[in-house]
Structures are given as C-alpha cells and as structure tokens.
Amino acid sequence: MPSSELGGFRISRNVVPRGPTALFLPETNCTGTGSSSSHHCQTSKSNNQSMQSFKIGCCSSVSAKFESRALVDTSKKVSRWYFGGIASSAAACVTHPLDLLKVHLQTQQEGKMGIVPQTVNIIRKQGILALYNGLSASLLRQLTYSTTRFGIYEVGTRKLGKDTSFLQKAGLAGFAGACGGFVGTPGDLVNVRMQNDIKLPPEQRRNYKHALDGVFRVYREEGLKRLFGGASTATTRAVFVTIGQIACYDQAKSLLLKTGVFHDNVLTHFLSSLIAGATATFITQPLDVLKTRQMNSKPGEFKSIVHLVTYTAKLGPSGFFKGFQPEVTVVVLTNTSKFLELTWAYVEN
C-alpha cells in the first residue's frame, strides 16, 4: 500500500479503479503522526460522508455531461448560409480555365474555332497560366453572386420547413437568383473583360491589374451605370440558373433517393448535379451568351438588347449556344463540389 507524508500526516492510498470516481478522487486512509498527532488523521463520519457526497456529485455531473452529449440529435444539422459562396469560390479555382474558354467562344463573331484549337492557341501564344487570367474577378463574382443566392435560399428553405413543394423551392430559388445576379454584376463584368483581354491586340486590352482595380477603373472611366451594364440579362439568367441548379438539384436528388436504388452518397450527388446542371445550362445558355457579349462590348456598341439579339442571331440558332460544352462541364463540377460541401460541412443547429 503506497504511502507518503504531508504536513505531519501519513497518507495511505488504495488506488483501486471503481468506475469514473477512481479517476478523480481515490480512496484515502490517514494515520496522524508528529506534532499534530492529537488529530490522528481520523476524519469524522461527517467528513467522510461529505467527501463521499462530493465524489458522487463529481461523478454524477460528469456522467450527466457525457449522457447529454450522447443524446444530441445529430440529424438536426444545418449548413451555414455562407457555405455556398465558399464552395463556389473553391470550385472556381478548378473550373476557371473552362469558364475562360467559354467566354472566348461566346465573344467570337467571325470564325468557328472550337474548344480544343482555342485552348492550344491560348497556351501557345500566352502560356498555360493565361488560362487563369481573371481568376481574382471570378472569385469576386462567386463571393458576391453565389454567396447571396445560396445564402438567401438556405435561410429561406429553413424558414419554410421540410414539407416544401417544388414550386415553392423554384420561387425561392428564382428570388435568390435575382438578388445574387444583380449583386454579382460588377464582378461578372470585370471577370468577362479580364478573361477576354488576352484575345485582343495589345493596344486594345484593358489591362486590369486585378478585380478591384477593374471595378474602380470601370466606375472612374465609364461611370456607375456601366458598372452594372448587363445587369438585366445577368439577373434574368441568374433566376433560371438558380432554379435549375438548386431547385432541380433538390428535386432530382429526392426522386433518386425515393427509388431505393440510390443512397445519399457521392454518386447520387453527382447524378443530381448532372441533371440539374444540364437543365440549367440548356435553359440559360442563350441568356449567358447575350450577357457575356453585353458586358464585353464597348460603350455604345449595342443600342439596345434587341440590337444585341439581332446581331447574335446572324450566326444562326447555334450562335445562342456558343460555349455550351465548357459551360455545362463548369456547372456540373461546380454543382457537385457545392452540394458535397453543403451536405458535409454541417454545424449543430
């Protein structure tokens, strides 16, 4: 039986594990020695009872704490409203080259250079890093556009509850998309211009240093109104693309899970994203082409939206679907990364 002396008392310890109590207060028996021998280290019954009560109280509170943690309902978890913007920004770092190629395909009026020749041409003339030209503007766009629309949709669906119909989801997604499209217009405009810059002759390039430089220069050189140039087409597109991306994604995922064949895993998320992405891209591609051309145009180049439509229509129906392949790839990859992060990055409600 190990013992030690402390302040004239001999302390003997019986360290015998007896559940959680043994971790905190091992049992002690004391025999007094020295000048304080009159006490003989014999604790009274009341002291022993107090000590036992203290030990039991400690154990009870610790056990209650662990039990309360174990009883937390882990099913009641929600994602933060800003997760959509963060996930979109992360996805943009991967998909930016495809987005740049899409802009190049959409802005060409003459010639029909495909995506592969376009890629080879850019790398040969500008280097591989040119595919990431305008990345800062793309991040600015996602942090404003995607954060707004995903945030509004996330908060809205939480308020509406689980028993939400597809029409309610679509209406909420449309409203969220309209808000996001308008807020994200300045970043989108600078993004399109920076991406298209490398295609222009050196004397015609705008040479924005980064996204914020582009925003301030457009405001200073062309005015506030021009900073929101293309807001009408950008907002309209955002309404439909958000309905396609979010509402169609939720509906597709719900239908896949109801079959009993699919489970809540990466495959189901990918298939849902593929369905939603293809739907959103097909519906919004003509608006995306018009938006890109309007934002990239010089002041006064197009007198009205009708002028822009008739100018693009000279290419035939296919002119309104320029850049469809890289765009659908971007949307599917972005959707997959967004919803995987939104599904897994949970916090307790």
Q: Which secondary structure elements does this structure contain, and how are they paired or packed?
A:
Blueprint: E1 3-6, E2 9-14, H1 21-24, E3 27-32, H2 45-70, E4 77-78, H3 83-107, H4 115-126, H5 135-160, H6 166-183, H7 185-197, H8 211-222, H9 224-227, H10 231-258, H11 266-296, H12 305-313, H13 324-344, E5 347-348
Antiparallel strand pairs: 1-2, 2-3, 4-5
Residues in helix, %? 55-70%
Indicate the structural class. mainly alpha
Helix and strand element order: EEHEHEHHHHHHHHHHHE
In the CATH classification, which architecture of the largest domain applies?
Answer: Alpha/alpha barrel
CATH topology of the largest domain: Mitochondrial carrier fold
Tally of extended strands?
5
Secondary structure tally, helices: 13
Chain-averaged pLDDT = 77
CATH class of the largest domain: Mainly Alpha
Portion in beta strands: 5-15%
Sheet with the most strands: spatial strand order: 1-2-3
